[in-house]
Specification:
The structure holds three protein chains of three kinds. Chain B is an alpha/beta fold. Chain B has helices at 43-50, 80-86, 101-111, 117-130, 134-137, 150-162, 180-193, 206-212, 230-235, 240-246, and strands spanning 2-13, 18-28, 32-36, 59-68, 71-72, 87-90, 168-172, 198-202, 215-220, 223-229. The model of chain B has no long low-confidence stretch (mean pLDDT 90).
Chain lengths: 285, 251, 320
């Protein structure tokens, strides 16, 4: 006697359940995006984006936060890209297969997994206090760049390794040295992948609050930062402030801030994806 | 006249495999010397030793000498990048670099320090003429090398080597991935080049060996079993193993 | 994060069989300098992990001297009055982590299986970018959503005194950790050789049975890696929990505690560090909590590394 629950029926039910799970995961994303856009768009005016806040930030714009995030992101890029790409080149092209290299990889895995607030503590201890940089863009971006390093290194390494070994052999057989092979052939070919990794790393750095909390971010700044040694406002921290720290904050401003932050982050996400797929399409090998 | 004299060459890899055992060989200049024998016999290893490409692998031990003119190629003080320009290599799969046709050929020249456009133009054209490719692609020099057919790509790879004006060309199964027409073109080109250059060639088929050889060397399991002029070795092999291999009794 | 990032973090796969070029240097001076810079950069990750360790210890170890262990492992966290019991914080973190991971694992693996084994390509074209968008949401944004939407709804739905509870945090964090689990697990599932599935189907199993009986088993260690990374992500979350879990450092005593406010280690550090005097006992204890967090992540990530390196050598054996 065959039961009602044939394997085929079970499969049907199972597939539907899985599909529902995926839907449950994904629907809120769409809902949130729509809602945030809807609620935040009214707040977006030229004034909002380009003026300083007034009245305890209940009015005016969020310019200092936007600029602060831009500064932080640029400085993080500056500090993390050269060593990150260099380390990736080392791991992909030079590193021998021994315990030291394993140690490097374990360290990288750990660096990638350290909670962001612990990075904040580290930044406080090393940059703000020990090196006496104080609460500044410098301290904050140095902290963020160490946090971003593992992402850049691992994606860049992957991109470099994806370049066929054969190119290296051919290049060497034509009389090129190792570094010449790297900068003439390997790096240009792996550039899209490396850039994707950089963008994704910076995207995370732009959105993080905890690492900059005690190293560079400040509640309110009457003027824009002048130098690397000044503290700064930043979008993620500003969002935190306007949604929890200021009573009577107009909801419009809160949604406007979320929208700007999300737009910033998602634009980076999108550009990384575009670069990735365009490079894949153009690849001739 | 001997171009390359190999004395007592032994090569061991890290994984314990002894790739070449006590090889003694004299390679005459300006002709085609064929290395033939079953897979794993050591032909590729020998080729890669001759341009020091073997340095890239996990070598455990390499003993012996390889003299080219007055230079011991294996000596640590040798400038390997300069050596590789004198001894060029063509691989079994056409392997263009991810550059344009022009830049592929100019690559070795740029790396050697030559960046003057006029010089490069001249050498690129010359190399393409030598492989009879100029007429086919003179208007596509800026296109990616990957847009060429397999046979054209392989000829491009030969041109790439020729641009450096080498004295020796090493070929490791260069036509194994090509159709008969492309193969014939390459064989004709190499035959022509052998009037000026020393060519050492490991073919992938017995027929190609007999077609192309001036001298031939039979390799079996890392050792040179027999080496002689092609007429002698193919018509009248001295060693039974050589004879068996030529007649297809194993391989 | 994205796709196979994690894979190469641990151990990149060996590419083709050809040797990787490492010629002897007969290089110019500039090449030697560049090579030196490259080599030193390679060791940066070791340098930074050590630095982090050192500085955490430097600022946090004194706490062990200044606060008697009995107090430290006590049950009250009330720094103003000198109570530095970190137990409620640790338990708060654990409560949220366990619940969040529970949610994340169920929905994450289900989604991964759906995307890798069930869904037709066009659905994946939509799902994948969406999951990547979720991965990109900054934690403040999640916290914001939690305050504005999730917490009031839960309060009404479940008839609670406040919507800022451990459960709210667990829901949000679980959801936020799903992309981590999905990307690594999906990778692992996609790497299962097609021959395994085909063998199972050829024996008369349905695709569903094949998934659970063969494919998931084969991808086991990859999925486990993803889960552990998800755990790491959840433990380390700061802003979201700070905004939605109520920040009440009480010991979660019973199951109801899930629906009451709670305080995590991360939120404690983030909210209190701004107000402490540098060098004070409170300051040192906060660093001590940081050390504990660091240790947790060290353990998790080392386990991840070990699993995934074993996975790679295991699969080599399987295929030979």
């Amino acid at each position: 006697m065959t039961s009602f629950f044939t394997p085929q029926r079970k499969q049907q039910a199972g597939f539907i359940v899985l599909g529902i799970a995926a839907l449950v995961v994904v629907m809120p994303i769409i809902v949130i995006l729509i809602y945030v856009i809807q609620a935040g768009l009214p707040a977006l005016s030229w004034e909002f984006l380009s003026t300083m806040p007034h009245n305890g930030m209940r009015e005016g714009g969020i310019l200092p936060a936007i600029l602060g995030t831009i500064y932080l992101t640029l400085c993080t890029a500056l500090f993390s890209i050269p060593p990150g790409v260099a380390a990736a080149i080392y791991l992909a092209e030079y590193a021998p297969d021994n315990s030291w290299t394993r140690a490097i990889r374990i360290a990288m895995t750990n660096l990638a997994g350290i909670p962001s607030v612990v990075y904040g503590l580290f930044g406080l201890g090393l940059f703000v206090i020990f090196l006496q940089f104080g609460t500044s863009i410098l301290s904050a971006s140095l902290t963020l760049s160490i946090m971003t390093l593992p992402v850049i290194i691992s994606t860049a390494e992957q991109a470099i390794r994806a370049v066929p070994t054969h190119f290296r052999t051919v290049s060497i057989s034509l009389g090129a040295s190792r570094w010449e092979t790297i900068h003439r052939i390997i790096l240009p070919e792996s550039m899209p992948g490396i850039i994707t990794g950089i963008i994704l790393g910076l995207e995370r750095a732009a959105g993080e609050t905890a690492p900059i909390l005690f190293t560079g971010a400040t509640f309110f700044l009457p003027r824009l930062p002048h130098s690397l040694m000044d503290p700064t406002m930043a979008l993620p921290y500003h969002l935190f402030v306007v949604s929890t720290q200021v009573p009577g904050m107009p909801v419009k401003i809160q949604y406007g801030t979320v929208l700007v932050l999300l737009a910033f982050v998602l634009t980076m996400n999108l550009s990384a994806a575009v670069i990735r797929s365009r490079a894949r399409a153009r690849r001739k090998w | 006249m001997d171009k390359i004299v190999i004395e007592n060459l032994s090569v061991h890899y890290d994984d314990g495999i002894e790739s070449l055992k006590n090889v003694h060989l004299k390679i005459k200049e300006k002709q085609i010397t064929i290395l033939f024998g079953p897979a794993g016999g050591g032909k590729s290893t020998l080729l890669r030793t001759l341009n020091r490409l073997n340095d890239l692998a996990d070598l455990k031990r390499q003993t012996g000498h390889v003299w080219m003119d007055d230079l011991d190629i294996l000596s640590p003080s040798v400038d390997v990048t300069a050596l590789r320009r004198r001894v060029g290599m063509v691989f079994s799969r056409p392997a263009p670099l991810p550059l344009s046709v022009y830049e592929n050929i100019a690559y070795g020249l740029r790396v050697a320090g030559e960046n003057r456009k006029s010089k490069l133009d001249e050498k690129v054209e010359q190399a393409l003429h030598q492989v009879v490719l100029w007429d086919e692609i003179f208007d596509r020099l800026k296109d990616s090398a990957f847009t060429l057919s397999g046979g054209q790509q392989q000829r491009l790879c030969i041109a790439r080597v020729l641009a450096l004006e080498p004295e020796v060309i090493l070929l490791d199964e260069p036509t194994s991935a090509l159709d008969p027409i492309a193969t014939a073109k390459i064989e004709a080109t190499m035959r022509e080049l052998s009037r000026h250059l020393t060519i050492i060639w490991a073919p992938h088929s017995m027929q190609q060996s007999t077609r192309m050889a001036d001298d031939a060397v039979f390799f079996l399991q890392g050792e040179v079993i027999e080496a002689a002029s092609s007429k002698r070795i193919f018509m009248n092999p001295q060693d039974k193993r050589t004879e068996d291999y030529i007649n297809g009794r194993f391989g | 994060m994205k796709q196979t990032n994690f894979q190469t973090l641990f151990q990149p796969e060996k590419q083709d069989q050809e040797e990787s070029p490492q010629p002897k240097p007969t290089d110019s001076l500039s090449e030697r300098i560049i090579t030196l810079l490259i080599r030193s950069s390679g060791y940066l990750s070791i340098l930074f992990v050590s630095l982090i360790c050192i500085f955490l210890l430097k600022e946090g170890m004194p706490a062990l001297l200044n606060v008697p262990p009995a107090s430290l492992f006590g049950m009250t966290w009330y720094p103003i009055e000198g109570y530095f019991g970190i137990l409620p914080l640790i338990l708060g973190s654990l409560l949220i982590t366990v619940s969040a991971v529970f949610i994340a694992v169920i929905f994450g693996i289900a989604t991964a299986v759906f995307m890798s084994e069930v869904a037709p390509n066009w659905i994946n074209e939509i799902l994948k970018p969406l999951v990547e968008i979720l991965a990109g949401f900054p934690s403040v944004v999640l916290g914001f959503i939690g305050i504005l939407a999730l917490s009031p709804s839960l309060r009404i739905l479940l008839n609670l005194p406040t919507g800022l509870t451990a459960f709210t945090g667990a829901l949000l964090l679980g959801w936020a950790a799903i992309p981590t689990i999905v990307s690594v697990s999906e990778d692992a599932l996609n790497s299962v050789p097609r021959s395994y599935r085909e063998a199972s189907l050829a024996l008369g199993a349905t695709p569903w049975q094949t998934i659970w009986g063969v494919t998931l088993q084969a991808a086991r260690s990859g999925i486990l890696t993803g889960v552990m990374l998800g755990i790491g992500r959840v433990i380390g979350e700061t802003m979201t929990v700070m905004m939605v879990t109520g920040n009440a450092p009480v010991i979660p005593a019973s199951l109801d505690a899930l629906f009451m406010p709670v305080r995590t280690m991360t939120a404690t550090i983030a909210s209190e560090m701004g107000e402490v005097a540098k060098g004070s006992t409170h300051y040192q204890v906060l660093f001590l909590i940081g050390i504990i967090l660091f240790l947790f992540s060290l353990i998790i990530n080392t386990v991840v590394f070990v699993i995934s390196s074993r996975r790679l050598s295991h699969s080599d054996r399987l295929l030979s």
